[in-house]
Amino acid sequence: MPTLSEAQSRLLVSDAGVAVSGWAVAADPASAAREASRLGYPVVAKLCGGRISHKTERGLVRLGLDGDSDVESAASELLAAATDDDGPVEVLVSEMVRGDRELIAGLVRDERFGPCVMLGVGGVLTEAIADVAFRLAPIDRIDAHDLIDSLGSQALLEAFRGEPAIDREALADTLCALGSLAADPSIASIDLNPLIVANGRPVAVDALVELVEPVQPGNGGR
Amino acid sequence: MARDLSALFEPRGVIVTGVSSHPAKFGFVALHNILSCGFSGPVYAIGREAGTVLDRPVLASVDDVPAGEADLLMICTPASVNEEIIRKAASKGVRAVFVAAGGYSETGADGADAERRLVALADELDLVMAGPNGQGVVSPPASLCAQIVAPYPPRGRIGVASQSGNFVSAFLNYAEQTGVGISRAVSAGNAAATGVADYLEWFADDPETEVGLCYIEGLADGRDFFERVREVCRRMPVVVVKGGATSGGQRAAASHTGSLASDDRIFDGMARQAGMLRAATIESAFEAAATFASQPLPAGDRVIVLTTAGGWGVIAADAVTRHPDLTLTPLPADLLTTIDGMLPPRWSRNNPVDLAAGETRDTIPELLDLVAAHPDVDSVIQLGLGIQGNTAAFTRSGPFFPDHGLERIVDYHERQEQRYAEATTAASSRNDKPVMVASELAVVRPDNPMVAAVRGSGRLCYPSADRAVTALGHLTRYAAWRRARA
User: Fold this and answer.
1) A145 part of a folded domain
2) pLDDT mean across residues, chain A
3) Residue A54: domain span
4) CA-CA distance, A53 to A47, in Å (whole number)?
5) How high is the pLDDT of residue B259?
6) Rounded to a whole number, what is the distance in Å from the CA of B267 to chain A's nearest CA?
7) Which of B294, B315, B340 is the last residue of a domain?
8) First CA to last CA distance, chain B
9) Among A201, B76, B320, B324, which residue's CB has the most CB atoms within a 10 Å radius?
10) Which helix (H) or strand (E) holds B476?
11) Can you tell me the distance from the alpha carbon of B401 to that of A2, in angstroms, rounded to the nearest whole number?
């Protein structure tokens, strides 16, 4: 299935009301460093393009860059790592959001129930913990709060390791925003993974929008 | 607007096909059950053997049924002849058909074709069609037991719609056991033309039904089900058990009904969003529905546990505390002061309110009403009743009864147990709050005077505190859903 680039995905979800980490794209290492210092260090740099997925597995994410020279060299390496299959690429620079808690949220289309908003406890143990819940989209604020309440790991949403309790209103904003995007029939799915909880506020530090395969009548496409 | 299913649940007269003299055949059993349960309208038996079955003349064809006398057709004949039968029956004034016969989509492609033709025919003739491949329909307000199995349950307020006939029977068996009765029950079978949502919508408008109870394995159109059931839940609580919740269960479901189960997590979220109460097991589903049918809805989540003694209170407090929808509320200060004046100082002075066997003749009825009346209490769970009655029963059957003053004390204890049970119902009705009684004696000694009196009041005596808490959790969640959505 075709996907939007991370930059396009971020634009789409933040326009709908999802809180995403501060970010910018740059075509070359020098402008990447300029954007990084504007955002404030430390930053993350990633290779960004419509055909790139599995960024982490391919080593296309550089975390904790703490100065112009770090960013410039990371950006050069990322751009050099691009292959012909990746198509047009650029460097996405974003704030390095810190928080001990990670959530995962998204939108999926179920064959029987149609579009569904998902919320789960994220991080490396997501699949093993399997603490995820769904609601049928669109959702209202009551649904959003009930979705948050239905996670098993409620203790994780309270004040935790010196960080404040999760801002449930802010999380509900993000969930409602995801639900509202269900009305766009071209969107097949959305993944916000992870949503890092920073100072109680959930912030998407990655976004991936999958598009419905365009129907090409007549010639059968390719 | 709900589809009109009144001909199915309140027929004026019934035609049964496939009636033979063999008492094990579906047609015989269906006729037997209809005739045995007091249905007052005309009943016509159709079969291939001339003569009588169960003292009824067997008619050779639906052609022989007088027009306008029967509006429900119960089909126990094989798939190959049913389309013609239905067409004739419609011309005689039949408006609803229950197809008990199998041989349809559950058997493969040919059966699926026959099922599609059945649906098209029902559409063309504007008939309500239930089944095929279902056990039947039961409707105590109409004294109707049109099904190919037992039991015929007591009349009550629970409306059952199930994608598995066996679970209809299970729910009806529980109704018989507990005395909390059934308003309508239908086995949806393959649900070719009439599905669980159709039944629930009709139940919501039905004055006989106060709560829906359904078993679901698969939903052809989940979104449509969600939107319709969400509307139903604004008017009537609906308890659901979902089969195929695990991958192993899903394989069994696919081979059972020819419908594919959808992802359990999405179903779970959908149910919660729609306001349905999802129960983990068949017995907890029945207990939840029986609780909706017999207890008021709580105004909030604050629970007080009352116990005469022992560990019951501790276990119940644990269960309430663990339940995400319930709160073990601190004992209000004014209640504490009042109870201090009623009991020796060894009582718990906290929630759970443990009397530590310090009660006298009138303590329990007085306390029940005091606690239930308190504005900071939403629900009450009473434990530790029935002990005196159980001791009395033991004494009564022993070698020393009735001498040594035993007759008098046994009578006293039995009267007290009955009083206690009546006090729980009175406290609940007077204060419009759930007051639930739990004791293993409900199962072990159903003749215990406390247990019998709770049953006599039309309520459940829960087999354990945990099961009372689970049922109360469903009531409390639904009440909160209704408040949020009002």
Assistant:
1) yes
2) 92
3) 22-95
4) 10
5) 30
6) 8
7) B294
8) 20
9) B320
10) helix B465-485
11) 85
Q: Does one domain contain both B309 and B423?
A: yes
- State whether A144 and A201 are in the same domain: yes
Q: Is residue B146 part of a domain?
A: no
Q: Quick check: B262 and A112 CB within 8 A?
A: yes
Q: Is A136 on the interface with B (CB under 8 A)?
A: yes
Q: Is the pLDDT of residue B201 over 90?
A: yes
> To the nearest whole angstrom, how far is the Cα of A115 from the nearest Cα of chain B?
9
- Does the bond joining B153 to the residue before it have cis omega, within 30 degrees of 0? no
> Does B110 lie at the interface with A, CB-CB under 8 angstroms?
no
Could you tell me if B281 and B232 lie in one domain? yes
Whether residues A70 and A151 fall in one domain = no
Q: Please indicate if any CB of chain B lies within 8 Å of the CB of A158.
A: no
Domain that holds residue B452: 295-485
Is A9 domain-assigned?
A: no
- Decide if B226 touches A, using CB distance below 8 A: yes
Kindly report the three-state secondary structure assignment for every residue of B220-288: CCHHHHHHHHHHHHHHCCEEEEECCCCHHHHHHHHHHHCCCCCCHHHHHHHHHHHCCEECCCHHHHHHH
| Cβ–Cβ below 8 Å for B223 and A136 | yes
Which residues on A lie below 8 Å from B266 (Cβ)? 110, 112-113, 116, 134, 136
B273, A139: Cβ pair inside 8 Å? yes
Q: Residues A71, A113: one domain? A: no
- Specify the pLDDT at position B260: 29
Mean pLDDT confidence for B260-286: 88
Confidence check: pLDDT of B20 > 60? yes
**Interface check B269 vs A, CB under 8 A:** yes
Single-letter residue type at A25: V
Chain A: nearest CA to B479, how far in angstroms?
14
User: Does A134 contact B268 at a Cβ distance shorter than 8 Å?
Assistant: yes
Do B265 and A143 count as a contact with CB atoms less than 8 A apart?
no
Residue of B nearest to A131 (CA): B265
Residue type for A113, please? Answer: F
Question: Chain B: residue nearest A114 by CA?
Answer: B223
- Angle between helix B363-373 and helix B406-431 axes, rounded to 10 deg: 10
Q: Is residue B105, in this structure, part of any structural domain at all?
A: yes
Taking each continuous run of H as one helix and of E as one strand, the counts in chain A are: 7, 10
Q: Token pair 């709580």 is at which residue?
A: B298
Q: Is B324 on the interface with A (CB under 8 A)?
A: yes
What is the total residue count of chain A?
222
Residue among A112, A132, A135 whose CB faces B222 most closely: A112
CATH number of B29's domain: 3.40.50.720
For residues A157 and A194, state if they share a domain: yes
pLDDT for B91-130, tens place per residue? 999 999 999 999 999 999 999 999 999 999 999 999 999 9
Residue A138 lies in a domain: yes
Q: Give the DSSP H or E segment for B354.
A: strand B353-354
Site from A112, A126, A143 to mutate, B interface, most B CB atoms within 10 angstroms: A112
pLDDT beyond 90 at B413: yes
pLDDT digits (tens, 9 = 90+) for B449-460: 999 999 999 999
Q: In which region does residue B20 sit, left (phi positive, over 0), alpha (psi from -120 to 50) or beta (all else)?
A: beta
Provide the number of structural domains found in chain A: 2
* pLDDT computed for residue B377 by the predictor: 98
Low-confidence ranges of chain A (pLDDT < 70): 215-222
B287-333 residue pLDDT tens = 999 999 999 999 999 999 999 987 889 999 999 999 999 999 999 99
CA dist A2 and A145 (Å) reads: 32
Within this chain, do residues A114 and A156 fall inside the same structural domain, yes or no? Answer: yes
Asked if B342 and B353 sit in the same domain, the reply is yes
Q: Which of A110, A146, A147 sits opposite B266 (nearest CB)?
A: A110
Per the domain annotation, does A12 fall within a domain? no
In terms of domains, do B223 and B187 share one? Answer: yes
* Model confidence band, residue B250 (pLDDT cutoffs 50, 70, 90): low
What is the ipTM for the molecules in this complex?
Answer: 0.90
Average pLDDT, chain B: 94
- B304 and B399 inside one domain: yes
Question: B105: distance to nearest CA of chain A, Å?
Answer: 20
Same domain, A79 and A105: no
Please indicate, yes or no, if residue B426 is contained in any of the structural domains: yes
Contact yes or no for A122/A90 (Cβ under 8 A): no
Distance (Å) from the C-alpha of residue A31 to the closest C-alpha of chain B? Answer: 44
Number of domains making up chain B? 3
pTM (2 decimals)? 0.93
